[in-house]
Amino acid sequence: MTALSGALPKRKRIRYARTTGREKIEIAALAGPAVLIFVSFVIFPVVMALRYGLYKWKGFGEPTDFVGLQNYVIILQDPLFHQALLHNGMIVVLSLLMQGPIALLLALLINRKLRFRSVIRVLLFVPYVISEVISGTGWGLMLQTNGAVDELMRSIGLGWAVQEWLSDPKIAIWSLMVILTWKFVGFSVILFLAGMQGIPDELSEAARVDGASFWQIQRRIILPLLGPTIRIWGFLTIIGCLQVFDLVYIIWGQYISATAGTSTMATYMAQNGRLSGNFGYGNAVAVVIFLISMTVALLYQRFILNRDTEGAITEGGK
Amino acid sequence: MATTKTAAKRKPLVSWVEGRRFVNPIIYLIAIVVVAANLAPAAFIIVGGFKSNSEMTVDPAGLPGEWRWSNYLYVLQSSSFWQQMGNSLFVAVITTFGVVSLGLMASFVLARYRFRGSNALYSLFAAGLMFPLTVAITPLYTLVKTLGLVNNLWGIIIPQIAFGLPMTIIILVPFLRAIPREIEEAALVDGCSRLGFFWQMVLRLSVPGVITVGIMTFVNSWNSYMLPLFILMDEENFTVPLGVQSFHSAYSQDTAMVLAYTSLSMLPALIFFSLFERRIVGGLTGAVKG
After folding, report:
1. Chain B 184-243, CB below 8 Å of chain A: which residues?
2. Domain range enclosing B40
């Protein structure tokens, strides 16, 4: 490029000036369809939720029964919503604490020349590929009273530790955490492995020659350089955890998730919104979830992701 | 070049290899335990389909005394199973095609054109990651209803394309940006237009990224539950996840049958994924590096 710069810039400038109009058309033609469908089916509904949330509305015709912020007042005072919010918070914190270390450890262990490495990688990813409905159905049957887990525990002499895994409010959230960890650890491992592939081998080689132990290399070289990947992983995990719906809804059904102590904001929204025909209220709940997710996401980007010059997701467009 | 590099690597490795020999069995042991725990639920589902219901009650964790094919055969002969497979396939294929083609065009603009607002456009799509389907589902249902697409497979396909775009664009933009300027310059000097460059070069060079997002979109669509749950009403329009759920409630006493149905319905995504697994890691590497 620099070698050509003596001749090119002039020609380039002329060409750019000439083709601006044409370029505009190209930009519009190429990006237009994506922008159109994205704005109408992602942005527009969220904006409409702001409006619908101000009405008492059963979903037929135009909303007319304007109630102002009353829906929001009800949401913020409803103990069931407080519970759901608390559960989401627990899911976020526990997911970070459980999945992060497990996935990092696994990724560090697998990130080397292992026999069967690619097989191990595929198998680790299996739970992520199995749909939530299937995972939920399978785990629900395994964890039910006198199900496979209970029987297995009894057969190895742990019968005393058998619990009501799904219906005891103290236990159920932990069952959910085990299932979520099972489902998403594979994805985290793959993400970390992908990040590790970007770390030059020469660095660990050099440290190894200097006599560094395996764990020293991981702690001093790999982990710090994996920082950007870990931060993006954290972002994806937090946002995902605030949206948890499918697994809870399938295993605990729409009604008992609250009594079993596993309800989330999304199951609260489904149950009190569309399923009970209160569309105004459901939209207001959607807005609350959106505001919470966005606040968390912005804070995360501001204070954590922006530490990377390269890694921040929304900075990539520069 | 490659041989000298490995030769240079090999020498300091000698002492290391001895260390590794000591560690390796432990690592293999951990890997086996983790993989076993990972696969246990899938194994439970698949094996359960071969059992009788009394075995399911008496000995839920054990192997069947006799491997029965009857549950699987029954499911394979039911027309609703194939109908749901067909629906899911239709939705997944069209969604994948839509996400990849629209996402690739938009990513090309974001990666290769300089124009005012390109940063804002990128941020707009990236912000889409912040509101997944869950947040928008209630108003989205209202919108789909207004368009008359409730209980219609297109009522799932179009929103899925829209919600698939952010991830696609975030993964594809670095790919397209990595195509050296020189190639584009050369194409332009040879009289190729920017669009011609897109058709002739970019499509071919971005194949790895496209395959990554294609697989992710396909698997996501195949597994998606919440949107079909809100949009689809009639059994004949159900996709596989809804079918599994309705089959489960219809045959709630016949656990072994439910498990046979469930294991057959997870096969396509698993096969599809294992064929292309390598590509996913490759694509994510590009995205994570930024």
Report:
1. 194-195, 198, 219, 222-223, 225-226, 230, 240-242
2. 2-48
Whether residue B70 lies inside any domain: the answer is: no
Buried (b) or exposed (e) across A241-272, using 16+ Cβ within 10 A? bbbbbbbbbbbbeeeebbebbbbbbbbbbbbb
Residues B89 and B32 in one domain: no
Q: How many alpha carbons lie under 13 Å from residue A312 in its C-beta half-sphere?
A: 20
State ipTM: 0.80
Name the pLDDT band for A255 (thresholds 50, 70, 90).
low
Whether residues B205 and B121 share a domain: the answer is yes
Q: If you ran DSSP here, which 8-state letter would residue A315 be given?
A: G
Same domain as B154, residue B44:
no
In a domain, B62, yes or no: no
CA atoms within 13 A on the CB side of B260: 24
Are the Cβ atoms of A193 and B281 closer than 8 angstroms?
yes
Residue A230 phi, psi dihedral angles, 5° rounding: -60, -40
Inter-residue contact B95 to B103 (CB < 8 Å) = no
Q: How far is the alpha carbon of B284 from chain A, nearest alpha carbon, in Å?
A: 6
Question: With a CB-CB cutoff of 8 Å, which residues 21-80 of chain A face chain B?
Answer: 23-24, 26-27, 30-31, 33-35, 37-38, 40-46, 48-49, 52, 59
Residues B24 and B110 reside in one and the same domain:
no
CB atoms B105 and A33 under 8 Å: yes
Q: If you write DSSP's letter for every residue of A128-160 in order, what string do you get?
A: HHS-HHHHHHHHHHHHSTTSHHHHHHHHTT-GG
In B70-153, alpha helices (H): 70-77, 79-112, 118-127, 133-146
Report if residue B59 sits inside a domain.
no
CATH number at residue B264: 1.10.3720.10
B144-163 per-position pLDDT tens digit: 888 888 888 999 999 999 99
Chain B nearest CA to A41, separation (Å)? 6
Q: B-contacting residues of A 176-195, CB under 8 Å?
A: 182, 186, 190-191, 193-195
Which class in CATH covers the domain with range A70-315?
mainly alpha
- Asked if residue B84 belongs to a domain, the reply is yes
Enter the pTM of the model. 0.81
Instruction: Give the pLDDT confidence of A190-235 residue by residue, as tens digits.
Output: 888 878 877 777 887 888 888 878 788 888 888 888 888 888 888 8
β-partners of residue A55 are A66
Say whether both B44 and B85 belong to one domain: no
Give the distance from residue A308's alpha carbon to the nearest chain B alpha carbon, in angstroms. 10
**Count: domains in chain B:** 2
Residues B23 and B113 in one domain: no
* Chain B residues with beta carbon closer than 8 angstroms to that of A124: 34-35, 38
Task: Clarify whether residues B143 and B284 are in a common domain.
Answer: yes
* Residue ranges matching CATH 1.10.3720.10 in chain A: 70-315
Q: Please tell me if residue A274 touches chain B, with a CB cutoff of 8 Å.
A: yes
Q: How far is A313 from chain B (nearest CA, A)?
A: 7
Could you read off the pLDDT of B109-148 as tens digits, one per residue? 888 777 777 788 888 888 787 777 877 888 888 888 888 8
